[in-house]
Structure formats: C-alpha cells, structure tokens
C-alpha cells in the first residue's frame, strides 16, 4: 500500500502520585491545555483532556508510528516538568508510574468524549479508585488490586 491509513482511538487515564488531590482549579485549565498540546507533539490527535484533583483522562487518536507507552511517557514527564517549573505547588509534582489505556471504536467517540467532559460531575458520585476498577473490569483487563495504586509506605 502506498500510504498508511489508521483510526485508533485511545482513552488514557493516569493519576497523581499517591493519588494526592493537588491539581488546583486555579491552574487546571492551563494544565489540561499543556497535556493536550503534548499529545499533539507526539503526532497524536487530541480530542479531549479533562480530570479532577487527583487524575486525568485523555481521548486521542494514536499516531501508528509511536507506541502508547512512548506517548504516555512523554506526556507525563513533560507535564510534570511544566507544573514543577511553573512552581504551582510547594512540593514536587509527580504522576503515578503506570497508566490505563483503553481503545474505542469510532461510533463510541462521542460517548467517551462526553464522559471525559463531565469528570467533575461524575466524581461527585464515585471515587477514582472505583472508576478505574470499573474500567479494568469492563475491558476485562487482568489486574491485582494490591498493585493498582502507589500508596504511601
């Protein structure tokens, strides 16, 4: 084939280290914009980024020339650097080591877009832990609850 044609939609979820609620509404909008731009820098196409105090959701079209792990590594490292260099917190900002990544079909994009868009409302009813476990179960991802989250030692 002369060209590469693709359509891979990825919903990624990643949490602040120890799930600390440090993403402030005072700078969240800028932070979300930074994350969206960082996704675009990898050659992916950002559809939406949103989150709450302790985690972020992204919906993006994956560039087939880069792995999801490489996308997440870049986005998480550079967004952490942005928070720290902007001196938005009195302590060092870090993401938890891992992430969740879930694929969707074109027909599901509108539904997942709205889900991510309504994170603040959604988390009035359910914690991040409950939400994440539900995603893993829905997608039949094998997991051990003991190792899902980094907890304070």
UniProtKB/TrEMBL annotation:
GO biological-process terms attached to the record: DNA transposition
Domain (Transposase IS200-like): residue spans on this chain: 5-119
InterPro entries assigned to the protein according to its UniProt record, in alphabetical order: Transposase_17 (IPR002686), Transposase_17_sf (IPR036515)
One Pfam match: Y1_Tnp
Molecular function as annotated in GO: DNA binding; transposase activity
PANTHER family according to UniProt: TRANSPOSASE FOR INSERTION SEQUENCE ELEMENT IS200
NCBIfam families according to UniProt: transpos_IS200
Protein name: IS200/IS605 family transposase
Species this chain originates from: Dyadobacter frigoris
This protein's encoding gene: tnpA
């Amino acid at each position: 084939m002369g060209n590469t044609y693709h359509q891979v939609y990825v919903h990624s979820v990643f949490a602040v280290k120890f799930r600390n609620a440090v993403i402030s509404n005072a700078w969240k909008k800028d932070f979300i914009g930074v994350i969206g731009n960082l996704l675009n820098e990898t050659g992916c196409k950002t559809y939406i980024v949103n989150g709450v105090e302790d985690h972020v959701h992204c919906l993006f079209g994956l560039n087939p020339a880069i792995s999801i792990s490489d996308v997440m590594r870049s986005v998480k490292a550079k967004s952490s650097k942005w928070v720290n260099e902007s001196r938005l917190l009195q302590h060092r900002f870090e993401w938890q080591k891992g992430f969740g990544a879930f694929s969707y079909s074109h027909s599901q994009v509108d539904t997942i877009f709205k889900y991510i868009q309504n994170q603040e409302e959604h988390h009035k009813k359910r914690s991040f832990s409950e939400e994440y476990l539900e995603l893993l179960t829905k997608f039949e991802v094998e997991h051990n609850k003991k190792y899902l989250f980094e907890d304070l030692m």
